[in-house]
Amino acid sequence: MSKLGILVNTDKYLDDVVGLAKAAKAAGHDVTIFGMDDGTLLMADICKQLGEAAEVSYCEHSASPRGVSGVEGATAGSQFQNAVMMHEADKVVVF
Description:
By secondary structure, the chain is an alpha/beta fold. The protein has helices at residues 14-26, 43-50, 60-63, 79-88; strands spanning 3-8, 30-35, 55-59, 74-77, 91-94. It has one domain (3-94): DsrEFH-like (Hypothetical Protein Ychn, Chain: A, 3-Layer(aba) Sandwich). α3 links the parallel β3 and β4.
């Protein structure tokens, strides 16, 4: 089993992010998602649609000025979570 990392830095591709994560999970892969910049605006929707299918975290520094906080199902963190995802993932896709 491999691990897919999905970096979300825009709010334009919710359906693509969710679809890719669901397909990867259905194929037996672990999925980690990290949101930064405008991608933090999608974190609540991503968590609602994926539930336990992915490990989700986001950059609190990026989220705060966009009014995003306390997203249920996601870890509010820093670029450290992004670095961990990059290190652990076999492949990383950026939106």
